[in-house]
Amino acid sequence: MDLYKTILRRIIIMSSMEEVETEETVTCLHITLYHPCQEEKQVFRSLKFHKRERRRVDEVAKFGRDSNICHYNLMDTRVSRVQFTLQFFRQLNSSELGFEIKNMSKKTKLIVDNVELDYLNKIDLPWKCIIRFGDYQLLMQRQDGESVDYFETCFELAQASLLQERHLPLLQPIPECGISPSLVYSQGVRPIEMDENDL
Amino acid sequence: MDLYKTILRRIIIMSSMEEVETEETVTCLHITLYHPCQEEKQVFRSLKFHKRERRRVDEVAKFGRDSNICHYNLMDTRVSRVQFTLQFFRQLNSSELGFEIKNMSKKTKLIVDNVELDYLNKIDLPWKCIIRFGDYQLLMQRQDGESVDYFETCFELAQASLLQERHLPLLQPIPECGISPSLVYSQGVRPIEMDENDL
């Protein structure tokens, strides 16, 4: 009788294991953000850090100033209402999933590593790249997953400019707060105090 | 005095001409639609024909069954909630404006001329092309314009299959109403009557 019970229990455990759906991994875009005046202006204050945010694959992830339109809000009057968009897609003739970026700003170029995007230009994001516009620097790195229903984003804050590491040239013109990020961090100069109107 | 009046009038006309903004042309995607059972099922009944519809460039034009999500609604239970999307963009290092198409259907391939798009695959539309999915055929032709704020769409209805003209192979499997479009039109056979449940 005990043997019967044991066998029955094993059968139940095995069949319940089979019924559990295979857990699916989700592609995550890790975004490390840097702005030379973040400490004063808190331009990233509306973003959630170290938290994976899940989006449906048919959503266009919008980054910009207008919180009514953008999922990812940059608190900075110099930023366009929609600065850029990210979209999920699957590579033709491949199972590789990735992101397309499109510049939605008429006034500011968007630079992906060394490729300049004008207004309405789009490009497929490399697996790892640095995005720049104005004073903003975003290191984007894709963590591959299997899901074709969702993707995720996850933000981190960089304490120093991301460009030195990658040996990319600093952007012209002069940054918004008037001090080059390399000066701020290499010479220990703190950014000048901001007027409230600048916020 | 008359001469004075004439000169004054000319000056007024000239200056008012200068003040008028240059009229900007808008890129228009002309879409000619065909479905073998349109006459019976009226799958295109919610679309406006011979009317240019203007959209903002940041809008994703969605085609599909779900009228809550899609601008362009196909009245057919065989169509996915969102079948495909169209997006406006500007070619990199060029002033050329165009459209990107993305297949949003998990169950049906989208064929652009002879390129098969699976779910989440995308491609830039050629200037003129034929899109196919299931029994649907769409001839898409771009009329170039200058605006970077808007694009337009304009629909027409085709009375016969678009494939003969372009010598494209008919799609497998057998069309929804059980009769091949080439049979319907080349042999004058009318499609069989539909049950209400098929609608």
Task: Briefly say what this structure is.
Chain A has helices at 2-19, 38-41, 163-166, 181-186; strands at residues 28-34, 53-56, 61-64, 72-73, 84-90, 97-103, 110-112, 115-117, 122-124, 128-133, 136-143, 150-157.
Structure commentary:
The structure is a homodimer of 199-residue chains. The first copy, chain A, has one domain: Tumour Suppressor Smad4, CATH 2.60.200. The first copy, chain A, is 16% helix and 31% strand. Chain A contains 4 helices and 12 strands. Chain A has a 7-stranded mixed sheet, with no helix packed on it. The first copy, chain A, has a 5-stranded mixed sheet with strand order 4-3-5-6-9, with no helix packed on it. Chain A is α+β, with helices and mostly antiparallel strands and 199 residues long. In chain A, a hairpin with a 2-residue loop joins strand 7 and strand 8 (115-117). Chains A and B meet through strand 5 and strand 6 of A and strand 5 and strand 6 of B.
Q: Which SSEs are present, and which pair or pack?
A:
2 copies of one chain form a homodimer.
Chain A (H helix, E strand, L loop, with lengths): L1 H18 L8 E7 L3 H4 L11 E4 L4 E4 L7 E2 L10 E7 L6 E7 L6 E3 L2 E3 L4 E3 L3 E6 L2 E8 L6 E8 L5 H4 L14 H6 L13
Parallel strand pairs in A: 1-12, 3-4
Antiparallel strand pairs in A: 1-11, 2-12, 3-5, 5-6, 6-9, 7-8, 7-10, 10-11
